[in-house]
């Protein structure tokens, strides 16, 4: 009988960066929101304001909302550069809260907050963090996976805490299942047991994902620099599109994928060609690295250009409701990783 390899987590209590989208707020209201976010007590998730379509959660001005149909909400622009946003409320599956006062008594949202009361916004964000619990758990587990990849062996791992199964990690099929209601802290204290192949079944109530998704989520949301050093000095080559849902790919990554699919380039050249900041390029290259989309080995470069298409470039259809909302199905299966491929540990790569 195979002896299980039991490993205890050594990860610190790292919090993910979560993106907050704003709509309908005036410059003064936005300034107030930024001030309140900077005053949040430590220990929770790190909230940063970002593009509305890419956000994990939304804050919307209640004054600028107009219910134009039973299930359709129009949010008027609060900035000269902002566009009107129209939401199909039946399709919204990310957390959303509205500032008071509301423009109409006909609209009765579940979550509201008062911009003049810091505790009101803090309470809404705690609700958001609870709603995003599975994502936060994936972040913790993704960080552990990246930290341990050189130690893990092919096979099945059960991740558990106090006798409760939290995750099933299948390195043969490159898939994972996570207990939806698990607290992210449980993963930091969990044990990893290497199990026989027969223990690969994922319970039906678990959230199914892939190991590629876990690594992408961590690389995108960590404040740590996880880009391998060779990607700062050697030419970087495009391999294939990342096997993650299309809505996960940010505008900056689309630009980077397009540039790399046209010609390889080192870090400094990519800074010039893309116009990205040093920090953004580092984060985006790390995400693409952990998705197996780039390489520093010329003979592993892809032979076709990035198939994102013209509509995938920034500014194209980014305001369409279908791209503004989450819930896209999981991406295609991860492409095989060749032996000795430096984009993933050889012992864990799918052969």
Fold blueprint:
Layout: E1 6-8, E2 17-23, H1 27-38, E3 46-49, E4 57-60, E5 65-69, E6 72-75, E7 85-88, E8 96-99, E9 112-113, H2 118-131, H3 133-148, E10 156-161, E11 164-170, E12 175-179, H4 184-188, E13 191-195, E14 206-210, H5 211-221, E15 237-238, H6 251-262, H7 267-274, H8 278-290, E16 294-295, H9 321-324
Parallel strand pairs: 2-3, 2-4, 4-8, 8-9
Antiparallel strand pairs: 1-13, 5-6, 6-7, 10-11, 10-13, 11-12, 12-14, 15-16
Helix pairs in contact: 3-5, 5-8
Q: What would your notes on this structure say?
A:
This protein has 351 residues and is of the alpha/beta class. The protein has helices at residues 27-38, 118-131, 133-148, 184-188, 211-221, 251-262, 267-274, 278-290, 321-324, and strands spanning 6-8, 17-23, 46-49, 57-60, 65-69, 72-75, 85-88, 96-99, 112-113, 156-161, 164-170, 175-179, 191-195, 206-210, 237-238, 294-295. It has a 6-stranded antiparallel beta sheet with strand order 1-13-10-11-12-14. The protein has a 5-stranded parallel beta sheet with strand order 3-2-4-8-9, with helices on one face. The protein has a 3-stranded antiparallel beta sheet with strand order 5-6-7, with no helix packed on it. The longest helix is centred in the middle third of the chain and has 16 residues, at 133-148. It is globular and about 60 Å long. The two termini are 25 Å apart.
Sum this structure up briefly.
The protein has nine helices and 16 strands. It is of the alpha/beta class. Strands 1-13-10-11-12-14 form a six-stranded antiparallel β-sheet. Strands 3-2-4-8-9 form a five-stranded parallel β-sheet, with helices on one face.
